[in-house]
Amino acid sequence: MLAVITPLMRIIEIPMLALQRLLGINRLAWAFLLPNLILFGLFAFLPVILNVFYATSGSDNVLLQNRPFVGGQNFGQLLDCGNYIDANSCREDKFWRAVWNTVTFVTLQAGFMVGFALLTAVILNGRIRARGFFRSVFFFPVLLSPVVVALIWKWILQREGVLNAFLDWTGLGGINWLVDAQWAFGWSVFISVWAHMGFYTLILLAGLQAIPRDVYEAATMDGASGWRTFRRITLPLLAPTMLVVLVLALIRGVQTFDEIYAFTGGGPGTATTFIIQYIYERGFAGAPRLFGLAAAASLLVAGVLVVLTLAQLWANRRNVDG
Amino acid sequence: MADRSGVTGFLTATRGRGRLHWTDWVSYGYLFLGVFLMFGPVVWLVLSSFKDQNELDRFPPRFLPYAQEVLTVPGYDDPLPAFTVTEGDLAGQVVGQTRRAAGRAEVVSPDAPEDRVRLTTDMLQPVEGVAFATDNYTQLFARFDFLRYFWNSTFITIAATVIMLLVNAMAAFALSKYQFRGRNAVLLIVIGTLMIPQTVVLVPLFLIVTKLGMFNSLWGVIIPGAATPTGVFLLRQYMITIPDEILDAARMDKASEWKIFWRIILPLSAPAIAVLAILAIMWRWNDFLWPLIVLTRTENFTLQLALNSFQGELQTDWPSLLAMTVLTLLPIAAVFMFLQKYIATGIASTGGK
C-alpha cells in the first residue's frame, strides 16, 4: 500500500510546490480545498440547482435542452388532491400512498427505535457483566448491508420458514407474512428497528456515561428509589441526547429505501412503498421515466430534510453546550 | 469475569452484594433475549446456507444441516444412498438402495452384495447424519459470475475509500491549519452539504454522471460520494489538536506545505483516519441505491446489486442465495470482529454510518 502511495505523494508534491511559490503559504489552503470543493460543487450543489430545472420541466428526456418548461405543472400533479388524507382522491395517488406510508413508518419506527435504544442503553449502563460483549451484540446488525438484512428476514419469514414452523408447532398456525399488507408493513418497521437500533443505543449509552456519578450517589444517599432516580435524574439529563437521537432517526427514517425495497419490493401492492422508492420508480425504474415528477418529489423531501437537519444541528449544539 | 468462571458465577456476581436483585434478572433476561434476536437470525442464515436443496425444502426445518448418508457396497462403482429397513426379514439392517421406482425399491445389504432384495419404499427409513453441504458455495462460482461481483464491490470500496481519505484529509488540513479569507464561508459550504443527501438529488446526479461518461462505470459510483462533510469534520476536529509548533519547525527546515501534510499531519492523524476508513469501507461495501441507478449491466453489478437481482429472478433458488448472502456479510463481519472498538467510537463520535 505504502509503495503505491509514496510515489503518488511525491508526484503531487511537484505541482503543489509550484503553487506554493505562486500563491504563498496561506492562499495555498485553496489548493488543498480544491478537490473537495469541486466534488461538493459538482455532486451536491449543482444537482440541487438542476433539480429545480427538472422539477419545472416535462418530457421523459434526461437532457435539459430537450425538456420543455412547464412551470409548476409537476408540483400541481403531485399536489392535485380532493382530500389529502385519502390517496385515492389524488391524481398522483401513488405519491400520496408513499407519503402516508412514510409518515406512518417514520412515526412508528422512530418511536420504537428511541424506546428500545433507550431501554437497551439503560440496561447496558447498569451493573452488568460482559458489557462489551452485550453492547457489540446489539450493535452487530448495524454493520450488515440492507440487502443482507432483508434476505435474512425474508428467509425466516417465508411461507415455509422457521417462524411459521415454530407457530405451527405451538398450534397458532403459520401466516404468509409478506403477502399480507399489514403484516408486511409491521415487519418492515421491525427489521428497520432491528437493523439500526444498535447505532442509537451507542449514542444514548455515551450520553448516559457522561452523566456524572456523584449525581447518582447523592440520590442514593437521599434514599431515592431506582425508578425515581431514573425519572428525575437520568431522563432530564439525557434529554438533549435523546433529542439528537430522535431527529437523526427521523432524518434516516424519511430516507428509508434499501432494506425495504429488497425485503418487500414495496408490496404487497403499495403497502410498503415509501417516498424514496416512489422517486426511484418514477425516475429510473418505470417507463416512461418521469424525471420531472421525481425531481419535484425530491424537492419536497429535501424541504422536509432541511428542516430536520437544522433541528439536528440545533440539537447537537444544545447537547454539546448543555 | 476474572474472579469467577462459569455461567452461575458470571450471573451471580453482578451486584457485588451476593444475591441478585429482581431487576438484575430482568436485565439479563432482556440481554439474553437480545442475543437470541440479534444473533439468531444470522446463525440461522449461516446454518441454512450449508443445507442441500432437499433439506431446505423440508418443513418444518431442522436446526442443523442433515444429509442422507451413503454406503459403499462392493460391486457398485458409486456409493449407494443408505436406508434402514423398518419391517420384514431385513428389519434393523442398513442397506444401500440401487433402484427406486413407483413405490418400490431394490436394495442390497453390504454383507451380501450379490443379493438384491425388492421392498416397498415405506419399509425404508433414510439414514441421515449432520453434514455441511458446501455445494451451495461451490456452485456460486460455477453458475454465477460471483468473482466478478466480488471484485466490483472490492474495487469500488478500496478506490472510494482511498480517494475519500485523501480528498477529505486535504480539505480538513486547510480548514484546521491555515488562516485565510473565506474560511468560514467554506465551513458553511461543508455544513450545507450535510443537508443534501444523495437521495434527494438522484435525477440531476444521474445526468451529471452520464454527462461525465461514468454511467455504467464503477467510477460513477466511486467519484460522486468521494467528498463527505462527515469526513471533513471528523478529520478537522482531530487535526485542530495537532500543535502548530510542529508545522512551524518543519517550515524552518524548508519543508514544503505538501510535505508537511503527508509526512507530518497524515501520520499524526492516523487514529482519526483509521476511524474514517472503517466507516468508508462500511458505507461503500453496503451501498445500494446509487449503484442501483448507475450500474445497470449485470457485469458491473456489485455484490449487493447481484444479491437483490437474484432474489427477484430466482425466487426459488434459495441455496445459491443463502450462500451468496453469507459471503456478502463475511467481510464486514471480519472487519467487525477485529475493529469493533474503533467502529463503535467512530460511529458514536461522528453520528454517521
Description:
The complex is a heterodimer of chains A (322) and B (353). Chain A contains 13 helices and no strands. With 322 residues, chain A is mainly α. Chain A folds into two domains: 2-39; 74-321, MetI-like fold. The two termini of chain A are 44 Å apart. Chain B folds into three domains: 6-49, no CATH class; 70-126, Roll (SH3 type barrels), CATH 2.30.30; 144-350, MetI-like (MetI-like fold, Orthogonal Bundle). Chain B is elongated and about 100 Å long. Chain B has helices spanning 6-12, 22-49, 53-57, 135-143, 146-177, 183-194, 202-211, 218-222, 229-240, 244-252, 257-268, 270-286, 289-294, 303-313, 318-350; strands at 66-68, 70-71, 80-85, 94-101, 104-109, 112-120, 124-126, 128-130. Helices cover 59% and strands 11% of the residues of chain B. In chain B, the strands form two sheets. In chain B, strands 2, 3, 4, 5, 6 and 7 form a six-stranded antiparallel β-sheet that branches. Chain B has 353 residues and is α+β, with helices and mostly antiparallel strands. The interface between A and B is large, with 103 and 102 residues.
Features:
heterodimer; A: 322 residues; mainly alpha; MetI-like fold; 13 helices; B: 353 residues; SH3 type barrels; six-stranded antiparallel beta sheet; disordered N terminus; transmembrane (chain A); Carbohydrate ABC transporter membrane protein 1, CUT1 family (chain A); MetI-like (chain A); transport (chain A)
Structural class of chain A: mainly alpha
Would you count the extended β strands of chain B for me?
8
- The biggest beta sheet of chain A, please? none
The helix/strand series of chain B, from N terminus to C terminus, equals: HHHEEEEEEEEHHHHHHHHHHHH
Low-confidence stretches of chain A: none
Helix content of chain A: over 70%
> Can you identify the CATH superfamily of the largest domain in chain A?
MetI-like
What is the CATH third-level topology name of the largest domain in chain A?
A: MetI-like fold
Integer-rounded radius of gyration of chain A: 25 Å
The biggest beta sheet of chain B is recorded as: 6 strands, antiparallel
Name the shape of chain A in a single word. globular
User: Which percent bin holds the helix content of chain B?
Assistant: 55-70%
CATH fold assignment of the largest domain in chain B: MetI-like fold
